[in-house]
Structures are given as structure tokens and as C-alpha cells.
Design goal:
292 residues; Rossmann fold; Thrombin, subunit H; 7-stranded antiparallel sheet; 23% helix; 41% strand; elongated
Length: 292
């Protein structure tokens, strides 16, 4: 028993004296823009249907935003003009200012009410089924790195006995619950795909030996953080797909954060020192920065 107590005490002391950096892995928040979440079903699309104010589209957008925000791993960018920017950017998705872009749609929606009538009682069950499709696009490459769809269900029942009991009309909250259930099946995969890939940043300017990179405090960058600088690899064409593929870059040095400034996630920058091979200040587009 004494030996066991000794081992436990040693293990406890080891945990106490492990540096905070070793106990807690740094997480750099990814910038995510959600756009073009459409309603592809025919539900509630009457003569005066307004696509931009579709209530189901807004429901899905709000639910997904809330789930991603609650993870604490993302900065969600509000871009009312995202659809326009996506079309204008073409293959250069970096112009949007996000690490990832989420495109989604409600692909199925159905509701039904079933009842059972007995001599002294009656029951009514309301059911909603919703199908949701998601695509996750990596802004730096314009490639879809994750695509999936899921279905969610929600139901509620009411019962009357001798005329006493619930007799409410259709429960509108069932739509939210069904869409939320479908999105819940996809959110974990979205988080894993975004966080598994290294965080990327870019050298924006070089001023008097100070290197200015994108990203700042709201993403989790702080003074003393060090990141690797890479020179882009050669771009080759894949004859099978007809797409251009960028080969892995070559590490040429490291930047260390000195300080950050900016008042929003979209305009935050960090001042850094640099050690490594010379960087061509006139051709900064050939470099990128990664945390892994």
C-alpha cells in the first residue's frame, strides 16, 4: 500500500511541475465563413416566396453558426456578400479572408401528423424529418475537403382523455429540432477536418526587418509564438483530373510574434521577427506560414 501511495505522489508532483505549454496544447482558431446555405425543398415556397428571407435557410444558418461557435475553435466571419465574393474570387478563395468556407443546403423536409382515436382518449403525434447537405471548402486551395449529408428527426405527442388534454396545432419548433439533429451529425466532422489541417498565415509586408503576418490575438496568437515559414512548391497539372496541384513547400525559416494589433478578426495583424533564408520582399505571394 505504501508503494502505491508513493507512486501516486510522484505522478501528482510530475503533473504539477509540467510546464503549462506541455499540459495544454495551443489551439489557433480557424476563420470560417458560412455562405450560400440554401433551401432546396419546395416546402412553404408559394407565389411570393423570397429566397433571401427563407425562414428555413436562416434557421439552418443560425443553428450551424451556434454549434461551431460553441466549440470555441472558430472565428465566424459575417459576410453578407459572400456569394458575390465566391463568384468573383474564382480559384483564389484567399480573397474572402477565411481559412474555410462552408456551403450548405436543406435537401429534404417533410412533416406529418398521425392520430389514434379511442373511446375515451385520443393521441396525436407530430413528426418532422429534415435532410441537410454540407460542403467544406479550403480557401487556400479552393478544394472541397469534406462533403456529406445527414437526416434529423423530431416529434412530439399530445393526448386527450375525456376531452381533457393538449390540442395544440402544429409545433413549429420541430423544424428547428430536426434541422439541429441533422447538423449535429456533421458538425464534429467539420471541426475535425478544420483542426486536423495545419493553420496557415501569410507574410503581408516587410517593414524595416519586421515581418507583418495575417492573424492576431483573437485567433490565439501571442507574443513569443513561433511558426514555420515555407516557400511554395511547384504547381503541376494532374492529367487525370485536369486540376493544378501545388507540391509541398520547403521550410526556409521561422517567424516569432512580437506583438499584434487590429480591432476585428478580419483586420488583425501580427508583427514578427524572422530567422532563416532571405525572403523576397517583392514577391511575398510565394511564401506561407504554418503552425505544424
Amino acid at each position: 500500500m505504501k508503494t502505491l501511495h508513493k507512486l501516486l505522489a510522484i505522478a501528482l508532483l510530475a503533473l504539477i511541475f509540467i510546464p503549462a505549454s506541455a499540459q495544454e496544447e495551443r489551439t489557433i482558431k480557424r476563420k470560417v465563413a458560412i455562405g450560400r446555405f440554401s433551401n432546396e425543398t419546395q416546402y412553404a415556397k408559394g407565389l411570393f416566396y423570397d429566397k433571401e428571407n427563407d425562414p428555413m435557410r436562416k434557421q439552418a444558418l443560425d443553428i450551424l453558426s451556434s454549434k461551431l461557435a460553441s466549440s470555441g475553435k472558430f472565428i465566424l466571419l459575417e459576410r453578407d456578400d459572400l456569394d458575390i465574393l465566391v463568384n468573383e474570387a474564382g480559384s483564389d478563395m484567399n480573397k474572402i479572408g477565411a481559412d474555410y468556407i462552408i456551403l450548405g443546403s436543406i435537401t429534404e423536409y417533410g412533416r406529418k401528423t398521425e392520430g389514434e382515436q379511442k373511446v375515451f382518449s385520443s393521441t396525436k403525434t407530430q413528426t418532422v424529418e429534415a435532410g441537410v447537405s454540407i460542403r467544406l471548402v479550403e480557401a487556400s486551395t479552393g478544394l472541397i475537403i469534406y462533403s456529406d449529408e445527414a437526416k434529423g428527426f423530431a416529434e412530439t405527442s399530445s393526448k386527450q382523455t375525456m376531452g381533457i388534454g393538449g390540442s395544440a396545432g402544429f409545433d413549429a419548433t420541430l423544424s428547428d429540432k430536426a434541422i439541429s439533429a441533422a447538423l449535429s451529425q456533421l458538425v464534429e466532422n467539420i471541426i475535425n477536418k478544420c483542426m486536423d489541417k495545419p493553420w496557415r498565415s501569410y507574410v503581408l509586408s516587410v517593414e524595416d526587418s519586421t515581418y507583418i503576418i495575417s492573424g492576431g490575438a483573437s485567433q490565439g496568437l501571442s507574443a513569443g509564438d513561433t511558426f514555420s515559414v515555407y516557400k511554395r512548391g511547384k504547381t503541376v497539372r494532374n492529367p487525370q483530373t485536369g486540376m493544378n496541384v501545388e507540391l509541398p513547400g520547403t521550410k526556409i525559416g521561422e517567424v516569432t510574434v512580437i506583438s499584434s494589433f487590429g480591432d476585428t478578426a478580419e483586420n488583425e495583424l501580427s508583427f514578427c521577427s524572422y530567422e532563416g533564408e532571405p525572403i523576397d520582399a517583392e514577391n511575398l505571394g510565394i511564401y506561407y506560414i504554418m503552425d505544424k
